[in-house]
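Just wondering, does anyone understand what follows?

——
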Amino acid sequence: MPTTEVISCALVSGSKPGDPDNEAAKVLKEVGDTLSNQNGLQQAQFGMQIEKENMLQMFMDWDSIASHHAFEKTGAYKPFLQRFMTIVDGEPTICHVDFKPDGALPRALSAPVTEVATFYFAGEAPKDYLEKATRFLANNEGEKVDGYLGGAVGTTYEEIEREGVKGKGAVLVIGWSSVEAHMKFRETSTFKDNIQLLRQGAQKISMNHVPFMTFIKD
Protein backbone atom coordinates (compact mmCIF):
# COMPACT_ATOMS: atom_id res chain seq x y z
CA MET A 1 0.00 0.00 0.00
CA PRO A 2 1.38 3.46 -0.86
CA THR A 3 2.44 5.53 2.14
CA THR A 4 2.76 9.31 2.07
CA GLU A 5 5.51 11.11 3.95
CA VAL A 6 4.13 14.47 5.11
CA ILE A 7 6.56 17.26 6.03
CA SER A 8 5.87 20.74 7.38
CA CYS A 9 8.63 23.21 8.15
CA ALA A 10 9.43 26.90 8.30
CA LEU A 11 11.99 28.21 5.82
CA VAL A 12 14.74 30.67 6.69
CA SER A 13 14.13 34.36 6.16
CA GLY A 14 14.42 35.46 2.55
CA SER A 15 13.38 32.11 1.09
CA LYS A 16 11.45 32.42 -2.17
CA PRO A 17 10.90 28.97 -3.68
CA GLY A 18 9.11 30.52 -6.65
CA ASP A 19 12.18 32.54 -7.68
CA PRO A 20 14.62 30.28 -9.58
CA ASP A 21 17.54 32.53 -8.58
CA ASN A 22 16.73 32.24 -4.88
CA GLU A 23 18.74 29.82 -2.73
CA ALA A 24 15.60 28.09 -1.45
CA ALA A 25 14.45 27.38 -5.00
CA LYS A 26 17.87 25.95 -5.90
CA VAL A 27 17.90 23.71 -2.83
CA LEU A 28 14.37 22.47 -3.44
CA LYS A 29 15.29 21.70 -7.05
CA GLU A 30 18.19 19.56 -5.80
CA VAL A 31 15.90 17.92 -3.25
CA GLY A 32 13.41 17.05 -5.97
CA ASP A 33 16.11 15.66 -8.25
CA THR A 34 17.46 13.44 -5.47
CA LEU A 35 14.00 12.18 -4.56
CA SER A 36 13.21 11.42 -8.19
CA ASN A 37 16.16 9.03 -8.32
CA GLN A 38 15.02 6.93 -5.37
CA ASN A 39 13.53 3.49 -5.72
CA GLY A 40 9.98 3.36 -4.47
CA LEU A 41 9.16 7.05 -4.82
CA GLN A 42 5.97 7.51 -6.83
CA GLN A 43 5.52 11.28 -6.69
CA ALA A 44 6.63 14.29 -4.64
CA GLN A 45 4.74 17.55 -4.26
CA PHE A 46 5.45 20.76 -2.41
CA GLY A 47 3.99 24.19 -1.78
CA MET A 48 3.93 27.14 0.59
CA GLN A 49 1.05 27.73 2.96
CA ILE A 50 -1.17 30.65 2.00
CA GLU A 51 -1.77 31.57 5.64
CA LYS A 52 1.93 31.44 6.61
CA GLU A 53 4.06 32.24 3.60
CA ASN A 54 7.27 30.93 5.19
CA MET A 55 5.80 27.47 5.85
CA LEU A 56 6.66 24.71 3.39
CA GLN A 57 4.61 21.54 3.06
CA MET A 58 5.73 18.46 1.18
CA PHE A 59 3.89 15.23 0.34
CA MET A 60 6.05 12.33 -0.86
CA ASP A 61 4.28 9.19 -2.04
CA TRP A 62 6.30 6.01 -1.50
CA ASP A 63 5.47 2.44 -2.51
CA SER A 64 5.49 1.71 1.23
CA ILE A 65 6.92 3.13 4.43
CA ALA A 66 9.71 0.57 4.02
CA SER A 67 10.72 2.29 0.76
CA HIS A 68 11.23 5.57 2.59
CA HIS A 69 13.21 3.91 5.37
CA ALA A 70 15.36 2.19 2.73
CA PHE A 71 16.19 5.62 1.25
CA GLU A 72 17.25 6.81 4.72
CA LYS A 73 19.87 4.04 4.77
CA THR A 74 21.45 4.95 1.42
CA GLY A 75 24.60 6.99 0.93
CA ALA A 76 22.56 9.72 -0.75
CA TYR A 77 20.39 10.42 2.29
CA LYS A 78 22.78 12.24 4.63
CA PRO A 79 23.96 14.87 2.09
CA PHE A 80 20.36 15.18 0.88
CA LEU A 81 19.16 15.94 4.40
CA GLN A 82 22.04 18.30 5.16
CA ARG A 83 21.37 20.28 1.98
CA PHE A 84 17.65 20.50 2.70
CA MET A 85 18.24 21.68 6.27
CA THR A 86 20.25 24.69 5.04
CA ILE A 87 16.95 26.40 4.15
CA VAL A 88 14.92 25.15 7.13
CA ASP A 89 14.32 27.31 10.20
CA GLY A 90 13.79 25.02 13.18
CA GLU A 91 12.82 21.37 13.29
CA PRO A 92 10.55 19.93 10.59
CA THR A 93 7.49 17.91 11.56
CA ILE A 94 7.31 14.59 9.74
CA CYS A 95 4.71 11.85 9.73
CA HIS A 96 3.58 9.01 7.50
CA VAL A 97 -0.01 8.44 6.40
CA ASP A 98 -1.87 5.84 4.32
CA PHE A 99 -4.56 7.92 2.66
CA LYS A 100 -8.07 6.68 1.89
CA PRO A 101 -9.94 6.20 -0.39
CA ASP A 102 -7.27 4.50 -2.48
CA GLY A 103 -6.12 6.71 -5.34
CA ALA A 104 -7.88 9.84 -4.05
CA LEU A 105 -4.82 11.77 -2.86
CA PRO A 106 -3.45 12.88 -6.28
CA ARG A 107 -6.78 14.44 -7.19
CA ALA A 108 -6.82 16.51 -3.99
CA LEU A 109 -3.20 17.64 -4.33
CA SER A 110 -3.57 18.60 -8.00
CA ALA A 111 -6.39 21.09 -7.30
CA PRO A 112 -5.77 24.86 -7.58
CA VAL A 113 -5.60 24.93 -3.78
CA THR A 114 -5.58 22.15 -1.21
CA GLU A 115 -6.94 22.31 2.31
CA VAL A 116 -4.61 20.46 4.71
CA ALA A 117 -6.15 19.80 8.12
CA THR A 118 -4.48 17.88 10.94
CA PHE A 119 -6.40 16.43 13.87
CA TYR A 120 -4.54 15.70 17.11
CA PHE A 121 -5.65 13.02 19.56
CA ALA A 122 -4.47 12.25 23.09
CA GLY A 123 -3.38 8.68 22.50
CA GLU A 124 -5.06 6.70 19.74
CA ALA A 125 -7.64 7.98 17.27
CA PRO A 126 -11.17 6.59 17.73
CA LYS A 127 -11.42 3.13 16.20
CA ASP A 128 -14.11 4.24 13.77
CA TYR A 129 -12.40 7.52 12.87
CA LEU A 130 -11.45 6.62 9.30
CA GLU A 131 -14.88 5.17 8.61
CA LYS A 132 -16.56 8.41 9.68
CA ALA A 133 -13.99 10.68 8.05
CA THR A 134 -14.36 8.94 4.69
CA ARG A 135 -18.14 9.27 5.11
CA PHE A 136 -17.61 13.05 5.42
CA LEU A 137 -15.80 13.01 2.08
CA ALA A 138 -18.44 10.79 0.48
CA ASN A 139 -21.15 13.19 1.63
CA ASN A 140 -19.34 16.05 -0.10
CA GLU A 141 -19.20 14.03 -3.31
CA GLY A 142 -22.85 13.08 -3.02
CA GLU A 143 -23.98 16.65 -2.40
CA LYS A 144 -21.88 17.90 -5.33
CA VAL A 145 -20.42 20.65 -3.15
CA ASP A 146 -19.51 23.70 -5.23
CA GLY A 147 -15.76 23.93 -5.76
CA TYR A 148 -15.04 20.56 -4.13
CA LEU A 149 -12.47 18.61 -6.15
CA GLY A 150 -11.93 15.50 -4.08
CA GLY A 151 -10.41 14.54 -0.77
CA ALA A 152 -8.48 11.91 1.15
CA VAL A 153 -7.81 11.17 4.80
CA GLY A 154 -5.62 8.89 6.88
CA THR A 155 -4.21 8.39 10.35
CA THR A 156 -0.53 8.78 11.19
CA TYR A 157 1.91 5.98 11.86
CA GLU A 158 3.68 8.13 14.42
CA GLU A 159 2.59 10.12 17.42
CA ILE A 160 2.42 13.84 16.70
CA GLU A 161 2.07 16.75 19.10
CA ARG A 162 0.45 20.17 19.22
CA GLU A 163 0.13 22.46 22.23
CA GLY A 164 0.51 19.65 24.75
CA VAL A 165 -1.73 17.14 22.97
CA LYS A 166 0.34 14.11 21.99
CA GLY A 167 -0.78 10.95 20.25
CA LYS A 168 -1.74 9.59 16.86
CA GLY A 169 -3.17 12.10 14.43
CA ALA A 170 -5.23 12.26 11.27
CA VAL A 171 -4.46 14.26 8.14
CA LEU A 172 -7.24 15.41 5.82
CA VAL A 173 -6.58 16.87 2.38
CA ILE A 174 -9.32 18.36 0.21
CA GLY A 175 -8.87 19.94 -3.19
CA TRP A 176 -10.80 23.15 -3.83
CA SER A 177 -11.24 25.44 -6.79
CA SER A 178 -10.28 28.33 -4.48
CA VAL A 179 -9.93 29.26 -0.81
CA GLU A 180 -13.17 31.19 -1.19
CA ALA A 181 -15.00 28.03 -2.27
CA HIS A 182 -13.82 26.29 0.91
CA MET A 183 -14.90 29.20 3.10
CA LYS A 184 -18.36 29.26 1.48
CA PHE A 185 -18.67 25.51 2.07
CA ARG A 186 -18.15 26.06 5.80
CA GLU A 187 -21.39 28.06 5.85
CA THR A 188 -23.48 25.27 4.32
CA SER A 189 -25.69 22.73 6.07
CA THR A 190 -23.64 19.94 4.47
CA PHE A 191 -20.60 21.13 6.44
CA LYS A 192 -22.42 21.94 9.67
CA ASP A 193 -24.33 18.64 9.71
CA ASN A 194 -21.26 16.50 9.06
CA ILE A 195 -18.20 18.23 10.51
CA GLN A 196 -18.42 16.21 13.73
CA LEU A 197 -17.48 13.16 11.66
CA LEU A 198 -14.02 14.75 11.40
CA ARG A 199 -13.75 16.42 14.79
CA GLN A 200 -14.75 13.42 16.90
CA GLY A 201 -12.17 12.89 19.64
CA ALA A 202 -9.73 15.51 18.33
CA GLN A 203 -8.39 17.82 21.03
CA LYS A 204 -6.47 20.12 18.68
CA ILE A 205 -6.93 20.93 15.00
CA SER A 206 -4.78 22.87 12.54
CA MET A 207 -5.81 23.89 9.02
CA ASN A 208 -4.18 25.70 6.15
CA HIS A 209 -4.30 25.98 2.36
CA VAL A 210 -1.50 25.13 -0.08
CA PRO A 211 -1.25 25.41 -3.88
CA PHE A 212 0.87 22.32 -4.50
CA MET A 213 3.37 21.80 -7.30
CA THR A 214 4.94 18.54 -8.44
CA PHE A 215 8.68 18.00 -8.40
CA ILE A 216 9.71 17.45 -12.01
CA LYS A 217 13.18 16.18 -12.81
CA ASP A 218 15.02 17.85 -15.70
User: Anything to note?
Assistant: The beta strands are 3-11, 41-48, 55-62, 88-97, 113-120, 148-162, 165-176, 204-210, 213-214.
